[in-house]
């Protein structure tokens, strides 16, 4: 990373000039009016024509109505020379930790290729009910890297961008709002992928597509029609809305990553999604080894899975009570997310 300056995530793209544009543009367009725009949810042509990185392979299956994303997981943009890697990823948050808590790793030596192989629908279906995103991969980016949600832990109490830490010009997150897992694999973003968004940005226009979420709907930076800077209050609970985009001029439901406050990423899917199929091995979000956790706690795997339930994040306090163990022991036995 050398002497490069870490960007302020709170003010990214949020300039005074943008506020003037917002005031003027609101006279002719507002996010709520976009709900009436005609929508086409066939994304195949857009996905196939998108500006994917050279090492990304996109295979559209017209019969299955899906596309397959294959990548080595390394982004095609530049990244920091060095990163702060927490020596104990369970000891969160990180922002208050001294330099001695971290290992300073050179990215040239530390970064490892990760086989990313995800199949995503090209016929996304909007759902009135939402599904929480989980730790690990929630989408894929044009750069060949992965999109994660905001959080560093299963109970969503630690937001990665708000937990940013810098020591001697070396940071936890790089200028693109990304980093790897603690083992150097699975480079991913926890905020607007600035290195993608800025390269494709056109003044006074809607952001260009920067990726696709696991439910098949496209993902954008924080500029709406007319270059309006959108904030969380402009969007639904999943950080999305319906309206025209450069790739879908007739309108489509789509997500915006934001920079004003958490959530900066996507807390939930508003499309039908098979989470297990898109968050598996290679995504940094593979399921924990429940058998090993159960053995450590002296219970059966079935008891553990039943107590944790299907809710994400799980209610650790309730699960611990049902299992007859302490909440601290349960959390300690669960593997660290390593984000």
Provide a descriptive summary of the structure in words.
41% of the residues are buried. The protein folds into two domains: 16-278, no CATH class; 290-333, no CATH class. Helix 6 (290-297) packs across helix 7 (301-308) and helix 7 runs antiparallel to helix 8. It has 339 residues and is an alpha+beta fold. It contains nine helices and 17 strands. It is globular, with a radius of gyration of 20 Å.
Number of domains: 2
- How many strands appear in the DSSP assignment? 17
**Largest sheet report:** 8 strands, mixed
Q: Structural class of the secondary structure composition?
A: alpha+beta
Summarize model confidence as the mean pLDDT: 82
Please write the string of helix (H) and strand (E) elements.
HHEEEEHEEEEEEEEHEEEEEHHHHH
Distance linking N and C termini: 19 Å
| Side-by-side strand order of the widest sheet | 11-12-8-7-13-14-16-15
Oligomer: single chain
Tertiary shape: globular
Helical fraction: 10-25%
Computed over alpha carbons, the radius of gyration is 20 Å
Beta percentage is 15-25%
Low-confidence stretches: 1-38, 280-287
**Count of helix runs:** 9
Structure, briefly:
It contains 9 helices and 17 strands.
Write the layout of secondary structure elements.
Blueprint: H1 16-25, H2 44-49, E1 57-61, E2 66-71, E3 82-86, E4 102-106, H3 107-110, E5 116-121, E6 126-132, E7 139-141, E8 146-147, E9 166-167, E10 170-171, E11 178-179, E12 188-189, H4 194-200, E13 209-213, E14 218-220, E15 240-243, E16 252-256, E17 268-271, H5 275-278, H6 290-297, H7 301-308, H8 316-323, H9 327-333
Parallel strand pairs: 8-12, 14-16
Antiparallel strand pairs: 1-2, 2-5, 3-4, 6-17, 7-8, 7-13, 9-10, 11-12, 13-14, 15-16
Helix pairs in contact: 6-7, 7-8, 8-9
